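Researcher: For the record, we're logging two predictions in this thread. I'll number them. Prediction 1 follows.
Model: Prediction 1, sequence and structure:
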Amino acid sequence: MTERADVLVIGAGVIGLTTAVHLAEQGLTVRVRAGEPPRATTSAVAAAVLGGPLLSDPADSAGWEPQETTTEWHRVGLAEFGALAERPGTGVRVTPGRWASRPELPDDSWVARLPGYRPCAPEEHPGFAVAFWLSVPIVDMPVYFDHLTERLAAAGGRVEIGQVASLEEAATEAPVVVNCTGAHAGRLTGDPEIRPNRGQHVIVENPGLDGYFYEFSKGPKQTSFLPHGDRVVCGGTATRDDWSREPDPAQTREIIARCAAVEPRLAQARVLGVEVGLRAARPRVRLEEESLGGARVIHNYGHSGAGVGLSWGCAHEVGRIIQRAGVN
């Protein structure tokens, strides 16, 4: 018979796996159950450059509300990923990269306070209305997931592949259940606010790039390319209410063309693969607790395109919620 754990985490994306690692390293016995392994989740295909919530417009419902709370969660992430960048084998590094936006910023006074900020010189400007350099962590997600999985195992936790039929069922298995099911949370919760936001990336052979480029304009298309060793992750798209995880050849061509307009060396780079994921779009992150069948269920989903950056801050918040009441 399977030993009863202190905590059952549902979902093995970056939110679920980070939460599980944090709780296990705090001394709790943790099991993760997910329908697919970490490397098959949406998080594994993320562009994974930190900074999004720090650049967001408070009026934009991009899943980063309330602004003060999510900004603090992201600052926790910057600190955690900054420390991870000092350790080999984590997939994390801090490196300068260009950030750009097509529209002008109504107020850009805050930009100069961001890590490593400097304006792009004319010869560095890719033709966007706004362009500047930042030095923030970027993450090679497959390598990073291996790092998290190893940390979880070292702390006594494990990942199980399987489905959870209902939260009521999960509540019979552990005194604390953490729901980290992302875009699929509506199936378990009936939450009408959670929606899929489909993203597609193209993986190409690295033609010799060191620096990255990241567009933070709003809308269904953002140009980005992030080199990780011998490959480059090129993006991207953002299509609401689209559940398809099949690659779209037309989008592949568009992504390469947009990236090549910024970096011509990408035009002829050999395509290694196309990856599609479903971001968990919601007007605000849902991180709250409810009682269910004698168990405590903590919801931790709806991070839109900011899951990597918010993962550690939200994991710490889950830990505080559990600590305040204790584990039954």
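Researcher: Logged. Prediction 2.
Model: Prediction 2, sequence and structure:
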Amino acid sequence: MQHPLLLILVKVTIFSLMLAIGCNLSFEKMRSFWRKPALVFRALLAVVVLVPLVVILLLKLFNLPPEVMIGLALLAASPGAPLTTKRSQQAGGSFHYSASLQLTLAILAVFVTPITLAIFTALFASISPKVAILEVARQVIMVQLLPVSVGILMQKFAPTFTQQVAKPLTFIANSLFLVLVVLVCILGLPMFSKVGELPLVAIAIMVIASLGIGHALGRFDDDTRSTLAIFCIARNFGLALFIAILNHVQQQVIPTLVAYLILGAFVGVPYSIWNKRRLAGLTQEN
């Protein structure tokens, strides 16, 4: 997991996925999302506030090893995984809603991530890493904000060209995503047993509670409910790993990050299948 090629693959995958989102999402669709303050408020409340609050409660209730505490804090402080739009679509979620929320979280991560980590550091003495705020902001800008902005600008100034490259770009991004998932599973499975039973219970509770928060705060009348649920459990693994490397704690927290990735998929996939069938049933009834 220390190999620099893995970090390069993570950055390239994130960049390509975000560029694909920018090329496929119109600026007007994003503006329409931002014009719905109640929808935006519920989404940010669930992803940015309530999920970290769940983690704080878990760290207070469970006597977890410091490395597990740091790993969960990094995940709680890293919302808006670049792969989430794809995952929410697999759950039957709205592409425009999920992509708009993805961009909003990418922008806010510049502020949300260091502030959230500062709160965890103040509350728990075991969480010692200091956040390199400028490095975190630069990382978010380079691999998330920049490619999305480029994609949106391409739509505005070269719409014909963008329309031609959008599908191939999406295919390449999805292929890189698949390669990354397979590689992380191969490298991470041997580390899964190092986490311990109690930390695995805490991680499972975090995953299930996060999914429940998103499902409960999502709207009842459309497919944004499943999107918000997936966004709550899909933390930004790449950003969390990057911050861990900045603070030289990657070897200690990687087992926790991998365990969350596996348990998140274990819970998220059945939910996605169930929700997609639910939406299909509602469509047939109407």
